[in-house]
Each structure stands twice: as structure tokens, then as C-alpha cells.
Structure prediction request, 595 residues.
Amino acid sequence: MEKILDLIADEVKKAFVSCGYDEKYAGVTLSNRPDLCEYQCNGALAAAKEYKKAPFVIADEVAQKLSQNSMFAMAESVKPGFLNLKIQKSFLADYIEQMCQDTGRYGCERTKQPKTVIVDYGGPNVAKPLHVGHLRPAIIGESIKRIGKFMGHNMIGDVHLGDWGLQMGLIITELKERKPDLVYFDETFEGEYPKEAPFTIAELEEIYPAASSRSKGDESYKEAAMQATFELQQGRKGYQALLSHILNVSVSDLKRNYENLNVSFELWKGESDAQPYIPEMVQKMKDDGYAYVSDGALVVDVKEETDTKEVPPCIILKSDGASLYNTTDLATIVWRMQDYQPDEMIYVTDKRQELYFMQVFRCARKTGLVKPVTQLKHIGFGTMNGKDGKPFKTRDGGVMRLEYLVDEINKEMLRKINENQKTREGVVISEEEAKETSKTVALAAIKYGDLSNQAGKDYIFDIDRFTSFEGNTGPYILYTIVRIKSILNKYKTVGRNEDGAVIEAPHSDLEKELMLTLSRFNAVMENAYEETAPHKICAYIYELANAFNSFYHATKILTEEKEQVQKSYIRMLGLTKAILETCIDVLGFQAPERM
Prediction:
């Protein structure tokens, strides 16, 4: 379906042209004064200079023309030259009915030019538990991926594991000290290595911080770890087998934690997967004259004439020939282009890495790793802070494990649900259902609390506010959906159905306001994808929930005596529920049956 704003703009363009003015002045927007009108056009102000007329004269002429158009209930010229518009109730009802009939899409068309897009989000290090710092990339990246899929694009999520470098050498070295008799350390061993890992995830999570801490004060230990890293990267079989165990144990645990967040990845690739592509990539950069030695390191200049600040070269190899994150990320681009030919790659990381990604992207373009038309985008997110305005920490000042944070919010949500049960009559849910519901609502609280903020901004992670059933929160959105479900279930319980139902012209201003909000669904989804901005969907569903609740409190729905009017209400409620559920699905959470 064509967006309602476009339909209105088309008629306004015709009116401008009919009056002798260029259609470029006929831009229509949502009104910034909803108390006066629903849509507005300020083009007469800009046209006045070209046509040497007072803007109100132009606005008067166009308003006169539009007043004869059946789409508009009001077309009013307001000095000095504004056009205030309201659309006919019947036109709006017809539009909403078409949305109802477009099951699953509700007026939002799939793209006619689907792209392959790789979203790089997550970035956890193996052998280390997820902490709160991993929350934002996971939540934002998953939502961007889901929005793209809904719009019809081929979206591929890649976790991009940190599974290379010194941390692997540290683990191997510490393991060798603790269990020196393991067959992996016997260079003469020729048989098959055990299929069972010689450690659990709990042991692995303890081994790495212990090794890291010791390496900072023990130079010989650090040298041993660096040697182990070198031997691993050179292909030592025993160490390669240990790496496989580390990955298997870590990835299993990571998948469990990500599943608890309703986050998934199509690709579980890591830095190690990029290693085979590095030698050829580096050689080509040398051969093509892009890479040169500076202070012992191999670098590529990425500064441009338009830069107003100094942009350092992109370092490809250190002076000792070792690779860096830059090297791995560039080699990752190489294999992604070879295997998937993506039209776009989106990286979701901390906004403090903006310069780093500028260097990597420029280097990839300059050296021909990507096609000229391939888009490379960095979505930099802000910091998740505590109530004190500082980065979120545990009570003792440490970095909180992500699963502990989720568990804490689950418990708070369960407490609130149980409290609500005590104050409500006739609604009793079992302890098991309460626990499952609390998990569902807690996830909504976490994700909506994060996504409702513009990604690039810092925000305060306030458990009390995020878990509230009132205000701009996930639980409030879910409570609205559950309320609609309850009304629809009661309607069916009394033996009624929607046979012959059709959306009627709104019977009140509040009903019209709800319809107007519903009509913007397709525009919101398109815009959220184009701007990779999940927060715009959050803003929309909060507005939609408010519009519905205002309509609900002022309207007798289940006691409406006129059957067709009631059927129209129920049909509109069904659409409202469907759109809210579609929106929270692309945000990465669901609604329970009751709360």
C-alpha cells in the first residue's frame, strides 16, 4: 500500500500545479500542532519568493482548490501562508480497512530491491562470560536485523567472536601449568585427540582471568603465553585441538545466554576464520602500492583532502609481522565479499570506535576489498550507565555478568506480577505461569528500555523505571497488548464473531486519532530501516498504545449496542494488536497471554 502521507501529498501537488505553482513546494508533513490540524504544508512560504506573491495568497488559492477534494474534511489557509489539513473520516476508514485486509503486512510493502546485508554485532571473547557491555550490541544488532528481514532484505547476523590472539595463548599456558600431562602438550603425539574438552565452562571462565592477571606481573609467563599464541597461529596440532575445545565449550554457553535475550546469529564466525585470508590480502596491498613500511609497521594511508582533523594511517601489520584487529577486520571483509557478496555491512559497536571503523572502511575501499557500491556502516552506541551517571557496575564496583543482570530483572518482574495478583480480583495465575510471564515481561523491560533510546546516546539503566507498568516502558506496551487480547477473547466468549465486519468511519475524535496513528505503520517501518533506528519503532508503539488506551477508556466496546459499530471496533482492535505485536517482534520480544 502507498503511504497515507504520500497519497495526501499527491493531491496537494495536483492542487499546487492546478494553481500554477511548482509541485516541489507541495511537501506535506504531520502537523506539529495536532490541536489545529492533522497534516500541514508550508510550501507557500517558500514559493512566495519565486512567484513574487504574498505567501497567504498562494496558500488561499491552494486551500480553495483542496476544499473541493473529497479526501479532505478541512483545507485551511492560515497567515502568513500555512496550509492546515484534515482528512475525511470515510477516506481514513477505507485506508484502515485496506490495512486490515493486508494480513501480515498491514500496508507495509516488502522492498522491490532486496539487498544482502551482514550485521556484525555481539563481538564476545571466547572463554569469558558475557557482561553488561555486551547488552547493547546484541539488542540493537538483533533489532536492526529483524527490521531488515521484515522489509524483505536478506539479513545475515554474524557474532564475530574474539577467538584469536594472546588470550588463547594465555589459556593454553595456564592449562599447561595446571594439567601438564594432557596429550595436547605432547608434540610427539600422533593419534586422535579426545572429543571431550578437558575443562568445563566454569573452569574456562576462571582460567582466563587468572592467566591474564599473572601475565601482568610475570614476564616469563607472558613470554610463554606469547610463544603459545605464535605456535597456535603457526598450526601446532595440539594447540589447534585445544582451540576447538575452547570454541565448542564457549560457543555452547554463549548461545544459551544469547537465547535468553532472544538474540540469534546466522553465522558464528570468529577472528580465527579470517586468518587464512590475511597473507594474500597483505601481499595484494603491497603489490598494488597501497601498503608501505612506516616505523617498522606496514600501513595504508587513509586520510582524505576534505579531512579537518588528522586521520592516522591504518596499520596492517605490526613491526614484528603480527596482525592486529585492523588486519582481522579487513580480512573478514575479504571472506564476506567472497562468500556472500553483501550489498551492505553494518557494524554495531561502541561509538568510541568511530575513528577505528573510519580507518578500516577507508582502507577497504581504497585497496579494493569492496565494490564501489558496497555500503559500510558503523552504528556506534552510547554507554549504559547506572543511576549515578557512570558506566553500569555491580554493587562492589565490578563489571556485572549479563546473566546476573537478567536474573535480577526477572526477580523484580516476578515480584511486581505477584503484587499485582494480590490487588486484583478474579485473576489468579499459577506460580509456574507467573515465572514464565515474568521472564517475558522482564525481557521486554530490558530491550525496550535500551532500544527506546537513540543508539548513539548514553542512557541510564534504571530497573525501577524500566519494570514499571506505567509510562514509556516495555511492560506498559505489553500490558496494552494483553488488554486488547482480553477484550477480543471476551468478545468471542459470548459467541460473537467478526463476520461481515468492516471498518466504519470513526465515531469520535479519539477513534480517529487511533486510526491516524495506525495509518502511519508502513511509513514508520520504512523509516526505521532506512535510518537503522529501532528507537523510532519504540516511539511509534508508545504513541499507538497511548492512542488505543485513550480510545478504550472513552468507548464502550463490549457493551456497544449497534452490532456493526461493535464489529468495526473489534476489527480495529485486531489490527492494533497485530501491529503492536509485529513491532515488538522486530524489537526482539513478545507479549504474554495475560499479566
